[in-house]
Hints:
The chain has ten helices and 18 strands.
Amino acid sequence: MELTLLGTGAPAGLPRPDCPCAACAAAVGDEARAATALLIDGALLIDLTPGPAFAAARAGTSLAGVRQVLLSHPHDGPALEVPAGLPTPGRVADGRELALLDGHRVKAIAVDIPGTGYEITGTEGERLLYLPPGGAPAGLDDGHGHGQGGGPYDMVLLDVLERPDGLARLRATGAVDAATDVVAVHIDHGAPPGPELHRRLAAAGARTVPDGASLVVGEYHAVPDLPRRTLVLGGARSGKSAEAERRLASFPDVLYVATGGTREGDTEWAERISLHRERRPATWRTVETCDLVPLLETGGPDHTAPAEPGELTPLLIDCLALWLTGVMDEVGAWDDEKWAASGRRALRERTDALVAAVRAARRPVVAVSNEVGSGVVPATAAGRRFRDELGRLNAAFGAECEQVVLVVAGQAIALRG
């Protein structure tokens, strides 16, 4: 089954008409995108891009063989342009199946917004799922997410950036697995421009292609290799925690490890914790602990034993600086005499154990830490000791990670990977 993407952008396109934003200004060349529309085997057209005949011509194909046109979402703007000779566009009721004359089978999939998703099965059994802009699948608990033939889809096209939870739902039901080709479409001007777009999608196990690209559904494609270990560094309020959370937003079961604990009577700290909790997906679980080594050594759904293959639950640790603070409290590192007598050695043992556990970890790990080496030299010996030890910990932890990212002013800079 051959799929030609006549457009890959949001319904308003990218750049949006008359929009002065930075993303629209940078949307030139392959980054310029018409509204998403799919041409399948030259016979089935799903959604319409403005000027569909010209879009097809630019892609090196034509619409002459189209026998069915389906729409996936309401069109509230100007009237759709339907080229002469094309069938009248329509939508299929949720759950209804169509058997097309050219051998394709189409099933309408319910989504959680006004609109319809489509599951298309080719003549050789290959299957793809297409979801409308801003939509995520609904009602997957009944098994509909596994497709007509059962098992994962060969290809899924959806709004990965705006609805990572939709991809998470598909993964939770087995409709998407490690071999599924996940293609991001409906890309709007909220997307980061240039290489950052592709880096962010790769972190979700997805990719995007320029308008006019043709893809073969079911053909092997190297799915972006998700790093097992990632360290996200940044200063205060740099956006490092949001970056770490975004990297795992498309996964259904994440264990969030908060190392800060609670601070009785500190209302400002309580407000910080509350804001962090509110922005996490509801399916994520949270534990408050500094005992990280056992969590890194396990990975199963109950987080207490080794996992079976395919059951590895991602771990998000926020953050290493607070973990180090707790450990330095325990070993008496703030007192010069205790530090010299036993604290230094005890701290090394704890950090070495943590780094060794990261090195051997089988589950995906994203850890957050503060980058404090570029600021003002602390005025106290204890402050300088903490700065130095955190720098050593970050370096040792980062050495065991496939990816290390520095976040500055909300912008992620890849240092490794």
